Amino acid sequence: AAAELKERLRDMDITVLSGAEGVLQIASEKVDIAFNALVGIAGLGPTMAIVASGSTLALANKESLVCAGHLVMERVKEKNCTVLPVDSEHSAIFQSLGAHRHDQIKKLILTASGGPFFGKTEDELKHVTAADALKHPNWSMGNKITIDSATMMNKGFEEIEACWLFETRQEQIEVVIHRESILHSAVEFEDNCIIGQLSLPDMRLPIQYAATWPDRGAASWPALDLCKVGQLTFYPPDRTLFPCLALCEEACRKGGSMGAVINGANEVAVELFLKGKIGFTDIYGLVNGAVKHCSFIQNPTLEEVFAADREARSFAYQWGGSILK
Ligand code: MG
């Protein structure tokens, strides 16, 4: 399609780029603000290129930080790059922080919808299908992130993302199940004051806020009617039923190549689950297997991060192949 488009536009002053190389090339251009909304570790190279270019980075690709947060943030500091979170929870934390001092943060409260399988038993989870998992209660998102949301892997990734973005320790993050998806996350300060961001679940708000920051633009989406919502509920997450969350929390504390291994194996596991080749609870089994099997490097270079990703993927394909239904 790119070749055809190039041909059709040949008389115009328009450059057509395509493929991973084209993405890298466009990411390397110095612009006012670059949005990275790629899915998976495919976003890591472009994230590094955007930071290096001196553009402001609006980051929707959490996997960049999950796989190589230490390298991304080191480069961000070196280049004095502005990073604006697009992930709704991180945008909420960013908005709640405002001008408050970083050393007065007690903890970050990361809300989770709980996904389509909240309240299900272990046995029920073994038999859910990709179609069941794709019915997210509040957000309309891509397939990969919807499955990650169902396993709570997404929330685990977001803990790692938050630790890098806001320079906090994993122990300072509290994950709270909030079924209504109205409070998008919050910050608790040392005086026990909690400041959070509320709105209807709609990605247009965090996306626009990243684009207009530090200003706000008018909304082209509906306003939140508190009386209509009536009540907001909160529960602690069940880490036994959703062990991917605990696995990511371990990666958050341990650092190194563990995030890249989890992410690589998870990308394969989600693909196999979507194709109906493995069961829902096999996703954790496969990712945990990869963590146990793959080598661990405490302070990997970018090359070693990509190598850890490849090792995890090949393990996941082999192991996934052996338990195919
Ligand atoms: Mg999110």
Number of strands: 7
Radius of gyration: 20 Å
Oligomer: single chain
Strand order of the largest sheet: 5-4-6-7
Helix content: 40-55%
By secondary-structure content and strand pairing, the structural class works out as alpha/beta
Shape: globular
Distance between the termini: 36 Å
- Structure annotation, total helices: 15
Q: Which ligands does the model contain, each kind named once?
A: magnesium ion
* Average pLDDT for all residues: 95
Work out the strand percent: 5-15%
Largest sheet: 4 strands, mixed
Low-confidence stretches: none
Order of helices and strands: HHEHEHEHEHHHHEEEHHHHHH
How would you describe the overall organization of this protein?
The protein is α/β, with parallel strands linked by helices and 325 residues long. The chain has 15 helices and seven strands. Helix content is 49%, strand content 11%. A four-stranded mixed beta sheet has the order 5-4-6-7, covered by helices on one side. The protein has a three-stranded parallel beta sheet with strand order 1-2-3, with helices on both faces. Helix 3 (44-53) links the parallel strand 1 and strand 2. 41% of the residues are buried. Bound molecules: magnesium ion (MG). Magnesium ion (MG) binds at residues 87-89, 158.
